[in-house]
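Support case: user asked for a sample of complex input and structure output to validate their parser. Sending the pair below.
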Amino acid sequence: MGITTASKSGALGWATLRLEDAVNWARAGAMWPLGFGLACCAIEMMSTQMSHYDLSRFGMELMRPSPRQADLMIVAGRLSRKMAPVLRRLYDQMPAPKWVIAMGDCASCSGVFNNYAIVQGVDEIVPVDVYVAGCPPRPEQLIHGILTLHERVKGESLTQWRRAEVERR
Amino acid sequence: MHDSKDPVEAIRAQFPKACLEVVTFRGETTIYIDPPQIADVCLYLRDADGLRFNFLIDVTGIDYYPDEPRFAVAYHLYAMLYNRKLRLKVRLPGDNPHVPTVTGVWPTANWQEREAYDMFGIIFDGHPDLRRILTAADWEGHPQRKDYPLGYETVQFSFNFDEVNRYKPYAKE
């Protein structure tokens, strides 16, 4: 037992699977998030990234500062109306396929800030895939939300994103 | 170093008509100034020997709705040399509130007056760049006015989920 010469060299033989499964497995397994830290939820998001909770276990090696290198947007915090166009612009700059997690009550439904200044849920600005409740959610909750998204991504159709792109044109 | 002077007496001597009212409360002095003279009074308070209020702590707006005059602008001054603080206030009418800028006296007043303009709609005459600073550029109204609607949307719970879903403006892909 243990690591054999074959596994070291990568010569492990071959297996068959559907292309869709392989692509979705790759997409879910190496999802790079765009950390959109807007408020206190960002602290929990950073904590999730740090060694104690270690988001790298799920293939999310690092938060991308650039939307062009990201395929998951984690909106962490309350979104003010002044910030809303910026959020949409960054979302539009992300290459497809792309997903959005609304982290925390404020991003999901504005939480306690039911007033003129805060957008009542980021789903009014960008399409949200997973909502994570909590004020702020613990890192475990965010990880659960991410794993929920992973399951969802694994069930996606390969033509879905292509079709969405064609429709947009 | 000159001996410190009493700011109230100094203003009364220098600007006989500018000082409208003096309020002292718990050791804090507030001087109500005639609005058109505020910039001159501030320049005097900054430069005169014995006063030297060289630091403008903040400029804020106040809405006394429905009283008239409705608005006030408060200037908090600090003299580092004498470790003293002073509050100046001007009262402004509800319709078309105008007051001269003090940007020429303390450059830091630039952003603080922009904030007062943004939140209360007080126009600072002579301001070099009077734009909104906190709200979006195309914002309508001035949010800190007391008659500004607070805004409220029905919260989506499980019992009214479908009802709110019908009119909630979801974003498209």
